[in-house]
Amino acid sequence: MKYSEDECHGRKNKNYTEDFKKQIVALKQNGKSTADIAREYQIAKSTVVKWSNDYSKSGSFKAEDNRMLLGGCKYFCVF
């Protein structure tokens, strides 16, 4: 199964598995175009780009691992 669906505020949210996301990132890293991946797997091109960028930066798909704050600092910086 590539995702589960949750109902939230009248719309369905898809929660893709980490294995599926890794498969998409691997396809992108191996040279398959974003458009081809999006079309074949029926996901948004922006989703392909986001997963690829997030995973290459941090090795994670979790938002808290990919957040950047002041000056590229990953954590709250006090100056």
| DSSP strand content | 15-25%
**CATH topology call:** Arc Repressor Mutant, subunit A
- How helix-rich are the residues, as a percent range? 40-55%
Main β-sheet: number of strands, strand sense, barrel status?
2 strands, antiparallel
Protein structure class = alpha+beta
Mean of the pLDDT scores? Answer: 78
Spans of at least 5 consecutive residues with low confidence: none
The structural domain count equals: 1
Provide the spatial order of strands within the biggest beta sheet: 1-2
Shape designation:
globular
H-E string: EEHHHH
The CATH C-level name is Mainly Alpha
| Termini gap | 46 Å
Radius of gyration: 15 Å
- β-strand number: 2
Assembly of the depicted chains: single chain
**How many H/I helical runs?**
4
CATH architecture: Orthogonal Bundle
